[in-house]
Specification:
Elements (H helix, E strand, L loop, with lengths): L16 E5 L3 H7 L4 H21 L4 E8 L7 H24 L2 E6 L7 H14 L5 E9 L1 H17 L10 H5 L12 E4 L18 E4 L9 H13 L8
Bound molecules: 3-methylbut-3-enyl trihydrogen diphosphate (2 copies) and magnesium ion.
One 3-methylbut-3-enyl trihydrogen diphosphate (IPE) binds next to helix 1.
Amino acid sequence: MATLPDPSRAGGAMPRHVAIIMDGNGRWAKARRLPRIAGHRQGVEAVRRVARAAREHGVEVLTLYAFSSENWRRPEDEVRDLMGLLRHFIRSELAELASENVRLRVIGDYSVFSPDLVELIDNAIARTAGNDGATLVIALNYGGQAEIVAATRRLAERVRGGVLSPDAIDDALFERELQTHDLPPLDLLIRTSGEQRLSNFLLWQAAYAELLFVDTLWPDFDGESLAAAIETFGRRQRRFGGL
Ligand code: IPE
Ligand code: IPE
Ligand code: MG
């Protein structure tokens, strides 16, 4: 991933890389007097809709925040429900991802998930690795700070091993250590549900992304909402520090 998006794309209508903080499932359920899991189930439907719509719009990469490194703080049964939905999503979606030529990627440390889920995820990644139509990135047990710390640690090891000089560490070299290193720069970061914070998502990558906060709760977000977001992006003037 290049440090900054290519300025020649400034004013261009189409974001290549869109990321979404999918928030508001619980409030969606609460408003209907339903259990939170019902909101998460509808949230999965929104994922299917929006992933399809993103491909139709020609978005190259869609990165979805599905489980943050802080979400372990939720009650055990909710975490279990979320893992169950993830398992179900991968099982049910794999065929479509394969037939639609979509490559599945994961950022975050999912190695701590249950072994069967890790295997399922690894298989889905391997089975779609050769697809080049679009990329769906799911952030699982992801934290932006942990990603930066891990990158720093790897560089420090190389310095200690005598194969890297501290002077050689610059933005581009650092970026190569991030899990997003081979993805296009983040153009548009959307958060649903009216909250206006990053919650530890893509901290480095968001440096020059356009931020869009919408009130829509994630289960209500659809292809039209995405089209509206892309249109808003197209009207933004990106300057990257220039004039
Ligand atoms: C987002 O919805 C889903 C995840 C974080 C997994 P929430 O569960 O955070 O919904 P609210 O914020 O409680 O409404
Ligand atoms: C951010 O939503 C994480 C995901 C969408 C996966 P949260 O609902 O967990 O964020 P906070 O706790 O309100 O910041
Ligand atoms: Mg939330």
